[in-house]
Amino acid sequence: MPYDNRVVVLRLGHRPVRDKRVTTHLGLVARSFGASELILSTEDKAVVDSIRDVNKRWGGDFFVRLEMDWQKFLKSWQGVIVHLTMYGISVDDMIEEIRNKKDSILVVVGAEKIPPQVYKQATFNISIGSQPHSEVAALAIFLDRYFMGEQLKRDFSGDTKIIPSERRKKVIIKKRKKLTPSMAQAGE
Questions:
Q1: Which domain CATH number covers 65?
Q2: Which of 35, 125, 136, 170 could cross-link 88 (Cys pair, CB 3.0–4.6 Å)?
Q3: Could you list the residue range(s) of the whole structural domain that residue 131 is in?
């Protein structure tokens, strides 16, 4: 099981007016499918706040942050770079090799046309089918193949938890401790 390796998702080209929902969904998939962090190359406080709120309520150690100079970040990455693109080599042909790497993995997912330097810097240019498709679906399939489905069994230990049921919704929401003014001042 490759949980020893840290998996980080870098979202390139987020367009705040157009991509809020898609980028938020990328963050949700990254979090629930085993990645440890989402990095946005474009500032969008609403997306960051939304993902942080889900993580706070549902639990987990997932982080979301901004990296405005993504080119510098990409050059400095110490590990494997997997660029998800419909022009790459099939995920099924490469996933075993990627899984066997002993380094952290940066998964690059674009919103708009990706600069040629990303293709050149990537350790692997990976396709999830060679047809136009959603980057959210591509990320979900890649992470599922990488973690071999085991990521879906993780316990996030948050305040909100779903109890599986065939016929109805069963949700447990732990009551959060209300802060008194003295607790708030103490930083509790």
A1: 3.40.1280.10
A2: 125
A3: 2-159
Q: Using alpha carbons only, give the angle 61, 7, 45 rounded to the nearest 5 degrees.
A: 60
Q: Strand, coil or helix: what is 67?
A: coil
Structurally, how many domains does the chain consist of? 1
Look-up of token digits 């003295």? 182
Asked if 40 contacts 68 with a C-beta cutoff of 8 angstroms, the reply is no
Q: Is residue 166 part of a domain?
A: no
The dihedral through the CA atoms of 68, 71, 72, 77 has a sign that is: positive
Q: Is residue 164 part of a domain?
A: no
Assess if residue 43 is contained within a domain. yes
pLDDT digits (tens, 9 = 90+) for 98-140: 999 989 999 999 988 899 999 999 999 999 988 888 999 999 9
For residue 30, the Cα-to-chain-centroid distance in whole angstroms is: 2
Look up the pTM and report it.
Answer: 0.86
